[in-house]
Design goal:
Blueprint lengths: L5 H8 L12 E6 L6 E9 L2 E10 L2 H14 L4 H5 L3 H7 L8 H21 L9
Antiparallel strand pairs: 1-2, 2-3
Bound molecules: FE2/S2 (inorganic) cluster.
The site of FE2/S2 (inorganic) cluster (FES) has 9 residues, from helix 2 and helix 5.
Length: 131
């Protein structure tokens, strides 16, 4: 059995949404200390919906495929839905990742979380604290 699914290879070789958004509403950058890979997510948000998303990933094949798939999964979705995206959902959408490569999908989840946190910090009025 090949190490990577066809979907992983497809998203690695032809990643979707690569690049930067100059006037992004939110940016999140995360890194993995162990492997040294870095992922940066740019979000454009209109009416609480992610209207555009781009990423830059300096990392392994799984990290690039995970970023690509994660951007596809959140594009056009409400911010609330993107916040709930798990790394398992990213890996499943890629038809699985080898166990020792699951941390690469975690990077995608964390990069989106970091970008949304950036958005929240910049727009506190849109996220009232509820007790
Ligand atoms: Fe570091 Fe894949 S090996 S993210």
């Amino acid at each position: 059995m090949p190490l990577y699914s066809e979907k992983v290879m497809e998203h690695f070789l032809h990643p979707r949404n690569v690049g930067i958004i100059e006037d992004a509403d939110a940016v999140g950058e995360v890194g993995n200390m162990k492997c040294g890979d870095i992922m940066k997510m740019y979000l454009k948000i209109d009416d609480n919906v992610i209207s555009d998303v781009k990423f830059e990933t300096f990392g392994c094949a799984s990290a690039i495929a995970s970023s690509s798939m994660a951007t596809e999964l959140i594009k056009g979705k409400p911010v609330e839905d993107a916040m709930k995206l798990t790394n398992q959902a990213v890996a499943e959408a890629l038809d699985g990742l080898p166990d020792y490569k699951m941390h690469c999908s975690v990077l995608a989840q964390e990069a989106i979380e970091a970008a949304i946190n950036d958005y929240k910090e910049k727009n506190p009025e849109k996220f009232p604290i509820t007790y």
